[in-house]
Specification:
456 residues, 3 domains, 30 strands, elongated
């Protein structure tokens, strides 16, 4: 199923604050600063970097600054900015930039072969004489790795190069750092887990197969000055769907031994057919809570992630066209091979809390992995809003990931939704053969007889 097209729509409805992440930066590849009054104009500054997702060997980054009228979204012409860039509180460069259109584009080329930074305005020796296009080439030992980059921006002119003003902004963008780790699970074998960090380089990744726990660390400054600036810390884990031990309905996560609120962990089963993506998103309030509760303040964040012993029922998922919301649970909570599982579901209005829709048709399917149809049933949802139930007998010769699919809701081929699950092996209690029981009984009788004989 094609799901990417509405991913952002679904995220915005499911997590209303998600859409505002870029408004405060410090964790994503863009930032839109809140409007500020400059003279008689309400001005906002946006900063973006591209490409949004890059690997650790990227060859360049483009950074775009735009000063806009908050009411019309039109850039202000004849803008002059003094921009200073920092990473880990270390200054990278400082320069004055000019743009006739109010649109600034920095083409940054990382180069570790020199310790000097060269900044050149496009247009060669005639740049400035023929106007300022706002495009600049920046080359040197900068942006050679991902992480959090902070900018101090001074607006010197706006609307006209003769209109001198003084307005300061602080902004930040994150260039993702991608790392892949091989883990060996005692049940699922070798698995490749990808961690994408949006704040700083992570390290010390470990996996405990017995505890089913991933852990890793990231440098972090817990000073009060830094806490005032941090608005969000974001980590993203891509877990293969074949890693069935980790395809669960709920996760437990912690930082520095302090359990994170459930809202800090979000599951994305839409973006990839091969992976489940788990987001760890710590907003300012969560970061401040950890700072207040932790016993020893180390210059890092130590993350852990593991399947929860609890089951997060019901699971809610929007349909691909965001027309409906599916609410699903099953009993027993652990789906076992060779046994029957009862699935209960409701089709809800996506905008009203717990409001079921009128009776509509549906197709319900269980798919082994992503392709093998295991079960299918068509029906109509209950007119009184009560949950529909479907009993599925799982074969005893299959364990692993399954996809629970809802399709053609109310006859619409775009109204579909998928929820991931796992079929596990049943716990087998070892049986003693009759011969072993006879031998055990005989030995027990012999011990009693010998004990009596010794007393006489």
């Amino acid at each position: 199923m094609k799901r990417i097209t509405i991913l952002l729509t679904v995220l915005c409805m499911a997590f209303p604050s998600f859409v505002f992440l870029s408004a405060y930066g410090d964790g994503l590849a863009s930032e839109i600063l809140p409007p500020a009054l400059i003279g008689t104009k309400n001005v906002t500054l946006s900063i973006n970097s591209a490409p949004f997702l890059i690997d650790n060997n990227h060859v360049g980054t483009q950074i775009n600054f735009i000063l806009q009228d908050a009411s019309t979204q039109e850039p202000f012409p004849d803008a002059t900015l003094a921009v200073s860039a920092f990473k880990n509180d270390q200054a990278l460069f400082g320069h004055v930039f000019m743009s006739d259109s109010g649109n600034f584009l920095f083409d940054v080329s990382p180069d570790n072969s020199t310790d000097k930074i060269a900044i050149n305005e496009e247009g060669g020796p005639f740049a400035g004489l023929l106007g300022h296009g706002g495009s600049y080439q920046i080359k040197g030992p900068i942006f050679v790795s991902g992480g959090l980059y902070k900018f101090k921006i001074e607006v010197l002119t706006l609307g006209s190069y003769d209109n001198q003003i003084s307005k300061s902004y602080n902004a930040a963008i994150s260039i993702p750092i991608t790392n892949q780790y091989q883990v060996n699970d005692k049940d699922d074998g070798n698995q490749a887990v990808t961690v994408i960090a949006y704040y700083d380089q992570i390290g010390n990744f470990q996996y405990d197969s017995d505890k089913k726990q991933m852990s890793f660390s990231m440098p972090f400054n817990w000073s009060q000055d830094n806490l005032k600036q941090v608005s969000v810390v974001h980590q993203e884990l891509k877990i293969p769907r074949s890693f069935t031990s980790f395809i669960v309905t709920k996760y437990d996560a912690s930082v520095n031994g302090i359990k994170l609120d459930d809202k800090a962990v979000s599951i994305d089963d839409y973006s990839s057919d091969q992976y489940r993506i788990v987001h760890l998103i710590l907003y300012k309030q969560e970061v401040n809570t950890i700072a207040a509760q932790q016993q020893n303040s180390k210059p890092e964040m130590d993350f852990t992630l593991s399947p929860s012993n609890e089951t997060a029922f019901p699971i809610t998922q929007y349909t691909r066209n965001a027309q409906y919301k599916v609410s699903l649970s099953w009993d027993p909570p652990k789906i076992l091979a060779g046994q029957t599982t009862k699935f209960s579901f409701q089709i809800l209005d996506p905008y009203l809390v717990n409001k079921t829709v009128d009776s509509i048709g549906y197709d319900f399917s269980i798919i082994a992995g992503k392709n093998g149809l295991m079960f299918h049933q068509s029906g109509t949802t209950n007119s009184d809003g009560s949950p529909n139930t479907v009993n599925v007998n799982f074969p005893d010769n299959y364990t692993g990931p399954i996809t629970i699919g809802f399709e053609n809701l109310n006859g619409n081929s775009f109204s579909d939704s998928e929820i991931s699950g796992t079929v596990s092996k049943p716990h087998i209690v070892p049986e003693f053969p009759a011969g072993a029981l006879i031998i055990t009984g005989t030995m027990f009788s012999l011990i009693i007889t010998l004990s009596r004989f010794s007393r006489t």
